[in-house]
Amino acid sequence: MINMPHTQLESSRFHHRLRVRWAEVDMQKIVFNAHYLMYLDTAMADYWRALALPYEATLAALQGDLYVKKAMLEYHASARLDDQLDVALRCQHIGKSSIVFAGDIRCSGRSLVTGELVYVFADPAAQKSRPVPAALRDVLLGFEAGEPMMNIEVGNWSSLAEGARAVRLDVFVQEQQIPMALEQDAADAGALHVLIRNRLGLPVATGRLLQAAPGVGQIGRLAVNRVLRGGGLGQMALKALMATAAQRGDREVMLHAQDSAKDFYLAQGFVPRGVPFQEAGIEHIEMVRTV
């Protein structure tokens, strides 16, 4: 039997929600047993996002990787097609080289499957275990204790350029294929910038604030690490820039939103102004919001 801390899992800080799909149901019209491991593994990917840790870059920086040593499941009831499941995860124990996660897959408050995942931190080349890095241990324990996972800085280009440039290079130049000559411009030197770093010090989001006219701020170069999108980092960066605009007395903030980001800015209170236009080969629309 797996001794699971049910009361702790019910109050877990991390929850991942999903809906049972047709392909996951077997001939008994219930979820095939192996898919519950997939549900836990899918939740683990979101757990890393909640820590603001892009998995590949993080493990590369820590010079190691995590390997599953043991996975155990205990079945209590079955999930069916279209059930909405809540997967709770908690880092239960960190040993010298191992990390143990407890999981609980629930439906309408009822526990269906509990599980335990044991990972070992190891050297990927030698395939031998190594001690869990102190930095990773601190992040995991900090998250479970309710501590913030990000550090937000607002400052000038000279102080934040290195981190901001790294995020923008990944997003605009490498991902969106915008020429370097268009992405980098002289406006950076006079702008105020926001930079969000995770607990390991890795830059994960950025943006800048220009002075378009007296009392009018202009936000631009808002970028979030691709792996971490959807976790609220964009809203955090935008909120910091809006607060900065308000502090210096701006009455209005405008921006040029890529068509793919229009809904994001609408949700943040911006409204379109004018007609769409092309910028760096990408369709944009001017959007504005009062401060």
Structural commentary:
The chain is of the alpha+beta class. The protein folds into two domains: 6-144, Hotdog Thioesterase (Thiol Ester Dehydrase, Chain A); 150-290, Gcn5-related N-acetyltransferase (GNAT) (Aminopeptidase). It is built from eight helices and 13 strands. The chain has helices at residues 6-10, 35-50, 55-61, 134-144, 157-175, 180-183, 233-247, 262-267; strands at 14-19, 65-75, 84-94, 98-107, 110-123, 128-129, 150-155, 192-198, 203-213, 216-224, 252-258, 271-279, 282-290. The protein has a seven-stranded mixed sheet with strand order 7-8-9-10-11-13-12, with helices on both faces. A hairpin with a 4-residue loop joins strand 5 (110-123) and strand 6 (128-129). The longest helix is centred in the middle third of the chain and has 19 residues, at 157-175. It is globular, with a radius of gyration of 22 Å. The N and C termini lie far apart (57 Å). 32% of the residues are buried.
Poorly predicted runs of 5 or more residues? none
**Approximate strand percentage:** 35-45%
CATH class of the largest domain: Alpha Beta
How many strands? 13
Q: What is the CATH architecture annotation of the largest domain?
A: 3-Layer(aba) Sandwich
- Gyration radius (Cα, Å) is 22 Å
- Describe the strand arrangement of the main beta sheet, using strand numbers: 7-8-9-10-11-13-12
Looking at CATH, the homologous superfamily of the largest domain is Gcn5-related N-acetyltransferase (GNAT)
What profile does the largest beta sheet have? 7 strands, mixed
Helix content bin: 25-40%
Class from secondary-structure proportions: alpha+beta
What is the N-to-C order of secondary-structure elements (H for helix, E for strand)?
A: HEHHEEEEEHEHHEEEHEHEE
Ends distance: 57 Å
How many domains, as an integer?
2
Average pLDDT level: 94
The tally of helices reads: 8
Quick one: overall form?
Answer: globular
CATH fold-level topology of the largest domain: Aminopeptidase
